[in-house]
Amino acid sequence: MNWFENLAPVVQALIAATFTWGITALGALIVCFFKKVNKKILNIILGFSAGVMIAASFWSLLTPSIDLSSDLEYIVWLLPATGFITGGLFVLLADKFLDKVLKNRQNLQNTNSLKRSVLLLSAMTIHNIPEGMAIGVAFGGISSGSAGTTLIGAIMLAIGIGIQNFPEGAAVSIPLRNEGFSRFKSFMFGQASALVEPISAVIGVILVLTIKSILPFLLAFAAGAMITVAARELLPESIKENKNLSTLGLILGFTIMMILDVALG
Q1: How far apart are CA 61 and CA 22, in angstroms?
Q2: Which of 1-10, 81-90, 142-151 has the highest mean pLDDT?
Q3: In this structure, is residue 195 part of a structural domain?
Q4: C-beta atoms surrounding 247 within 10 Å
Q5: What's the domain range around 26?
Q6: Of all residues in the chain, what percent carry a pLDDT higher than 90?
Q7: How many domains does the chain have?
């Protein structure tokens, strides 16, 4: 851990976001072995990821945002609240944009395979942008001396994002395989959906390190984006088959993240 702690924050964020991309690639790799994934397992994974992301949003992002606002003698609630709302709206508007693009998705079977793959890849790519920025902001906040930001918190945030990226990779590659794409092409499209995360992470770090005065806003922005992703994407999907498994996964993920962040951070 010491070697990682001594790295520059940009490198730390890049490594962490590369990890989340790698987990996406592993999820996409499932297409080489299976055409379907057990729904119960997915329910637990999605619920667990939501729990981790909700806990990380509070302890690793939103609380440090409030503390830093106080340290900088700002109105304590203003930037955290504004950033949180903006982060949530960013995700909602991105989803709305995708819905508009895909409004005729019920007719996709009449389009060519390239168009279908581009639409799937675009959906996941836009979805992954705020996740990558959240990683960058978390690691950048440590180096900038933000109160409450910890290395273990940033690492756990990346792990939580990585875990929920696993089914996302499969969600792209498996449908493409079912449409007739080769295993290799399906895998390549699946893993490519998360390539934006390392790029977004680096951008997040640079913003934090160069403009510390807006760090409270950026931390809260990332928190709002994470909560919205969990509420809009992960939880609704996880309860489709089994609410109990999803709930147990969420409780477990939230508890583990809370213990690690509070006890070890």
Answers
A1: 24
A2: 81-90
A3: yes
A4: 16
A5: 12-32+43-264
A6: 15
A7: 1
